[in-house]
Amino acid sequence: MGVKTLVAGVGMIPFTTPRTSETYDVMGERAVRAALADAGVDYSAIQQAYAGYVYGDSTSGQAALYRVGVTGIPVVNVNNNCSTGSSALFLARQAIEHGVADVVLAVGFEQMQRGALTMSYTDRPSPFDSFGAVVDSVQGASDAPFAAQYFGGAGREYAEKYGMDPAVFAQIAVKARKHAANNPYAVFRDPVTVEQVLAAPQIYGPLTRLQCCPPTCGAAAAVLVSEEYARKHGLRGDVAIAAQAMTTDGAATFDSGSMMNIVGADMARSAAQQVYERAGIGPEDIRVVELHDCFTTNELLTYEALGLTPQGTAEKFIADGDNTYGGRVVTNPSGGLLSKGHPLGATGLAQCAELVWQLRGQAEQRQVDGVQVALQHNIGLGGAAVVTLYQKVG
């Protein structure tokens, strides 16, 4: 790492369903204003901005940011599927670290439509063609939503490999709702039982509807600054990005015949190892994680990909309560994508906001005791995985 990057301010708005959503530009503006206020920085001080979204026309980032100010700064629009928000954060951090800018804004927003994710363009090759060929060869074609096929198939593969009852996945949905009950930004805050989760309509493999994240609208933002700028202007400098890594698919994604690698387990493992090495810590030092639980199956796979528990031991990790309060590491105190919601472009920055609040001791009823470092994991099929380690400083 070069120049130390500090997270001076974060902001997000309550996530909602498409039926009750504001437009993307209004949501983006609200999140940016909240992050600026939190940082104590005027928009005129921002030198670069990275705006993440998946479903929207080109330069939607400018449309949202022009509602805050028209200052002529570079605005870069980012689309990296579900890892879009963290990809914007990754670029903003690089600009600070390499001395290109001292004050950079990352914002993510999404105005989604109801229903399962679909391909927007049918008159050209899909970026998932090579992935789909592997999926079809491993488990055959299906009419189920494509993302559910991918992640449901990965969960089924894991359960068969390690002899685990697929009903274990349902416990993750119950935990997500329990955590979300304390999060005013979350969409689904009512409790559910394992029985209710398993009785919900079947989607694919072990997945029922209550094990799939909902289409969600929302926005979140972060203001990043250099340590020198924070000191010079009297900004808070108590949270730093200690290490960060982005990976894309390797040969194992397509050559191993593994659905777990198709959904990014190998990418996540590689990114996490890079982060641990750069930061000089191990997964045993982590007490709070926001990870990409788009489906219950992926949360379980990610426990092991991040090294939170050894390979093949996730069932015991869950049974012992080591994934929640009172256990070894609190996973998704926000309620995660399953309950907080998953507006694709906003998710990575919403994870950032939650972990910054945890490190500051501002997470209220969700607060994890004694947090000194916090880990973030965000993936997008197609593919990209971003793992970020935040550290309490000063």
Supply the number of helical segments: 15
Helix and strand element order: EHEHEHEHHHHEEEHEHHHEHHEHHEE
Strand content: 15-25%
C-alpha-based Rg, rounded: 20 Å
Q: Structural class of the helices, strands and pairings?
A: alpha/beta
In words, what does this structure look like?
- By secondary structure, the chain is an alpha/beta fold.
- 38% of the residues lie in helices and 18% in strands.
- The protein has 15 helices and twelve strands.
- The strands form two sheets. Strands 3-2-4-7-1-8-12-11-9-10 form a ten-stranded mixed beta sheet. Strands 5-6 form a two-stranded antiparallel sheet.
- Helix 3 packs across helix 15, helix 5 crosses helix 12 and helix 11 crosses helix 12.
- The protein is globular, with a radius of gyration of 20 Å.
- The two termini are 18 Å apart.
- The mean pLDDT is 96.
Question: Could you list some keywords that capture this structure?
Answer:
ten-stranded mixed beta sheet; alpha/beta; 394 residues; two-stranded antiparallel sheet; 15 helices
